[in-house]
């Protein structure tokens, strides 16, 4: 075990991974999302996609302990349940694609998903009214595929909620609950496939410590009166992901 722990601590770029997960925790704490959008592009510089997905989902489970109790009472649980059920079915398809696509291709997809999300939100795309259950199922299904392929479990659902009429508090709670469920689903699939190694678990545990602490800090900063601030904070998170995730800046694995 000590040798394996030392091996995890010798992960290339570990200091940058710690910094990225710390910033992601603060953003996740006060917006309800953003972990993968910050961490995945940075981690993709140093780690292959399978390990990135394993680490981000395992650390995501850790943050749930800090955020889920408050979000549970504020979320629209039935709606989130439909989204999560559809995502559960399609996550294996995303993991299958991840195994078969080159690393740089996955990184381009990460940047593309983030960029498309940002452009739609900044352009002011909005919808009104209620989304039907089949519509929710489609949104959840797409989120599951993208989550399994890239580790970005949130953008599709984030776009759905931020582009609608929901308040910042509702967006935050629903997103936290959905991401918590999807993290568990992806971890379960990775374990079943034998993708999660002891080294991946130890790396995730190492990163979970600063992540848990900064998530609590971010949660303490949240104030529902500043809804506009949180929406633009979300846009900023996505913008950073687009810039840092472009494979043209660094060589892929």
What does this structure look like?
The chain is mainly α and 253 residues long. It has one domain (2-244). 80% of the residues lie in helices and 0% in strands. The chain has helices at residues 2-9, 14-31, 35-46, 49-74, 77-100, 103-122, 133-150, 155-162, 168-193, 198-221, 227-244. The protein starts with a helix and ends in a 9-residue tail after the last helix. The relative contact order is 0.22. It is found in: Cell membrane. It is a multi-pass membrane protein. This is Probable membrane transporter protein.
Element pattern in H and E: HHHHHHHHHHH
* Radius of gyration of CA atoms, rounded to a whole number: 17 Å
Category from helices, strands and their pairing: mainly alpha
Low-confidence stretches: none
Shape: globular
Total domain units: 1
Question: Number of DSSP strands?
Answer: 0
Number of helices: 11
- State the separation between the terminal residues, measured CA to CA: 27 Å
Estimate the strand proportion. under 5%
Q: Please, what is the average pLDDT?
A: 80
Approximate helicity band: over 70%
Largest sheet, strands/sense/barrel: none
**Quaternary structure type:** single chain
């Amino acid at each position: 075990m000590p040798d394996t722990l030392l091996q995890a601590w010798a992960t290339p770029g570990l200091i940058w991974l710690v910094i990225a997960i710390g910033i992601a925790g603060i953003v996740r704490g006060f917006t309800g999302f953003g972990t993968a959008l910050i961490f995945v592009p940075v981690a993709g510089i140093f780690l292959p996609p399978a390990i990135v997905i394993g680490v981000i989902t395992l650390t995501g489970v850790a943050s749930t302990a800090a955020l889920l109790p408050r979000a549970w009472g504020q979320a629209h649980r039935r709606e989130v349940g439909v989204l999560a059920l559809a995502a559960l079915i399609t996550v294996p398809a995303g993991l299958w694609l991840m195994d078969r696509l080159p690393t740089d291709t996955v990184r381009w997809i990460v940047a593309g998903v983030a960029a498309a999300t940002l452009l739609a939100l900044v352009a002011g795309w909005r919808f009104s009214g209620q989304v039907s259950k089949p519509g929710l199922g489609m949104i959840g299904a797409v989120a599951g595929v993208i989550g399994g392929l890239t580790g970005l479990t949130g953008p599709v659902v984030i776009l759905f909620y931020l582009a609608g009429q929901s308040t910042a508090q509702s967006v935050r709670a629903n997103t936290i609950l959905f991401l918590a469920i999807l993290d568990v689903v992806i971890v379960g699939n990775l374990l079943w496939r034998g993708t999660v190694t002891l080294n991946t678990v130890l790396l995730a545990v190492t990163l979970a410590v600063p992540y848990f602490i900064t998530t609590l800090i971010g949660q303490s900063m949240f104030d529902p009166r500043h809804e506009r601030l949180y929406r633009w904070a979300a846009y900023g998170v996505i913008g950073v992901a687009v810039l840092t995730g472009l494979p043209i800046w660094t060589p892929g694995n």
